[in-house]
Amino acid sequence: MTYQTFAHVYDEVMDHEQYQLWVKFTKDSFKTYTSRNVQKVMELACGTGEVSTLLTEAGYQVTGVDLSSEMLDIAKEKYQQDYPSIDWVQKDMRDLKGLETFDAITLYSDSLCYLTEFEDTIKVFKTVYEHLEEDGLFLFDVHSLYQMQEVFPGYQYHYTSENLAFLWQSYELEEPGSVEHVIDMFVRDESQTSKALFEHFQEVHVEQTFPMEWYQEALEMVGFKKVWIKANFGESEVEETSPRWFFIALK
Question: Distance between CA 112 and CA 145 in Å, rounded?
Answer without folding.
Answer: 14
